[in-house]
Amino acid sequence: MPSFYREKELNLRKLIADKLERGKIDFSIFVEITGEETSTQINKPVVKEYLKQLKDIVDGDTTELLKMAVRFPDALSTEREDIDENEWKTILNEIHAALNHITEYRLDEGRVLEADFKNRIATIESLLEEVIAIDPERIEAVRERLRKGVEDLKEKVDENRFEQELVYYIEKYDITEEKVRLKNHLEYFMSSLNSKDSNGKKLGFIGQELGREINTIGSKSNYAPMQKLVVQMKDELEKIKEQLLNVL
């Protein structure tokens, strides 16, 4: 901004920061100065020095050399009076109007993002319900696969010991905790989304937790139909994470 507005800089920074809260903001004030608003004077010592140097170089009419000298840097000094408070009031009104337009645009964009998030969270919830529904089927499939593997070895086994080992093995693939935590995180995401506060960073953190639970379910599933559902959940979550970068 022009030097004569520098005293307003701190107040402007606070105004913009309070209104916009987050983001990288570029702000500029450009002023076109007219003759009526300024006092322009000839910098006599500078012009005289230019004339002296020109005369040392060429012989010429003083008037012509003077025309050249006043075009050189610093030959004229332009000064402006102190800030015109009426002018500043007009500028400030325009700044407030611009900030209000930005806020309105953000709100419009936010409504679109909100609808998108709700749809994607609902999709993940629906996929989670499918995961919960097929989990008993998955456990039975793992049990049968292990039993068939033992039978293929043509070895006699102690059924009690086999059942103990089977229970231990299946417990390693139990996803009960992950299902509960994922459901809780989805509910927490929605409650934070509906909050009146600025929650962009908070939603980002919750998104990370969602990803952690989904990834754990995927690594433990050991069952193709469930892994397919996990891939779909990951796809929805990635789209959410991309859009979270645009949330205040």
UniProtKB/TrEMBL annotation:
Record keyword Coiled coil present: no
Classification of source organism: Bacteria, Pseudomonadati, Bacteroidota, Flavobacteriia, Flavobacteriales
Protein name per Swiss-Prot or TrEMBL: Protein YicC
Organism name: Formosa agariphila (strain DSM 15362 / KCTC 12365 / LMG 23005 / KMM 3901 / M-2Alg 35-1)
Keyword Methyltransferase: no
Chain ranges of the Endoribonuclease YicC-like C-terminal domain: 135-247
UniProt similarity note: Belongs to the YicC/YloC family.
Required cofactor names: a divalent metal cation
Every Endoribonuclease YicC-like N-terminal domain range: 1-114
One MF annotation (Gene Ontology) recorded for this entry: hydrolase activity
Keyword terms, alphabetized: Endonuclease, Hydrolase, Nuclease
A Pfam family: YicC-like_C
